[in-house]
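During the no-cost extension, the postdoctoral fellow (Dr. R.K.) reprocessed legacy sequence entries with the updated structure-token encoder. One reprocessed record is reproduced below for audit purposes.
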Amino acid sequence: MRRCNSETRHPVHIALICVLLLGIPSPGLNAAVVGIEIEQRTDVLDGRTWADSGAYEKLSGKVMFAFDPENPANEAITDLKLAPRNEDGRVEAWADLVVLQPKDPARRRGIGWIEVSNRGSKASLAYFNRGTGDLNPVTAEHFGDGLLMDEGLTVIWVGWQWDVPETPEALLNLHVPVAQGLDGAAVSGLVRADWAVDTETELLGLSDRGHRAYGPSDASAPENVLTVRNSREGERTVIPRDQWRFETEDAESGHITHIHLEDGFKAGNIYELVYKAEDPPIVGLGLAAVRDIASHAKYDSESEFPIQHAVAFGVSQTGRFLRHFMYQGFNIDEENRKVYDGLLIHTAGAGRGSFNHRFGQPSRDAQPYANFFYPTDLFPFTSSAQPDPVTGRNEGLLDNVEPTFRPKIFYTNSGYEYWGRAASLIHTTPDGKNDVAPLENERIYHLSSAQHYWRPGWPTEDRRIPGADAYTLTPLNLLITLRALAVRLIEWVETDATPPANAYPLMADGTLVTARGVSYTEIPGIAIARIPHLAYRAYYCPDWEQGIVENQPPILGDPYPVFVTQVDGFGNEIAGLRGLALLAPLA
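Re-encoded structure tokens follow.
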């Protein structure tokens, strides 16, 4: 096991810090949002009106933050006290901001729909408006049937992710400072990148899905180690250092972005690189940004987009973000006020993520076939405290949020999350022996037989599975049910109207089973899944609770018991909310 410590080196650059410190006003007392710069204000669809909401306007610009490192609400932010401070002793950052709201203040419902942007994008118009969606929604097709507008919601997007790539597209970014040691020395540590190679190549990029990556601080450091293995849990073989090298994609910039292997990276192998880096950004400020934009809208009497209630929506990565947000107690702002009143956490399974640790990479997500063993499937999983019989820990996801500060929460998952994100752990005991009921402020809904995401239309021929009369993806539209649930969550928040009852698979009624207990119908040419994604007890470092990772890769302990959903004679999942296509099939 590597010893956990904090090593410092002289900084290579602090350009990002310099950018942050220019032009941000000094914060007022107890104000995390210190400035909103609206760069563009336009009428949506040339003034088209919706139901009782009337015409909508679109605001685009930037939000400036100044966070108090000494405030208890910020105590959980890793390395915040190592960030440079302004003359008022606060840590500054800024983010991209986009808002849609009824133009007439009198017609605003007072409900803020804050979407936690998945990798800088905007999903709500596609998920809830039946629109095509877009990074810069301007057309009627982008806005679809306008459900969110008909509901009179104020829709807010804010950048929270430091590693979103800088592109000409309208991706939402968060710009944060980096941690510094004593006398401005650079903080250094280990970073990991991995690749499951499908096609032989000589070059592999350090980044995940095009996101900004950490470059090595010293290309010749002995800590830089490349290994290869042939399975996820397989034994690693070290590749001699003289057989691979770091490379730059852009010689002019000099930034190292790739690694090169002399004999090429072979298809079917998993390659993993651990290397030394420095200047870690304050990743956890993304949690504070999502907290404080809602707090600003709720409590600042001069807000450009005032609301009375805040509801957050996160999908996949950002659903995991919201689970992490709650676990680390971020639903209380710097003035000790409740922030979010409701959360729609969609297709997050039992995951959290790399949202608040040193050298965190928020884009990486510990999938079954990529990004292995990153801090994603983390105990605790259930909202109520449950004992882990192996580690002795006894915790719940909401332990760090007092009952009066807890929002009303909908958890929605598809079949994929039970197989690919250990979703059963959110409602079973860590020993895998019993069901665990959600708390009174929660509902759990399984979207029966749905997939992680949905594409319009029937699968085309390019989606046919070779050698079988079957296709990848499904025409079953989970968004019909999700739209209805969103409306019910808003009603629960606004009027305390009783939401639909929980609907998810249970051990008690036989709808939650082991992977080998699924009663599959055999389909010619289709291999039957037998191994779900496993959530391991992974040991990252004794200082992991302080956001430090030094075991790269982590040391794996025993996995938690994971269960999946039982199916009927047609292969459709029995439990959960069955969509129209299952309730009234045409074929």
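Residues 464 and 470 are 6 Å apart (CA to CA). The chain has nine helices and 25 strands. The remaining legacy entries will be reprocessed before the final report is submitted.
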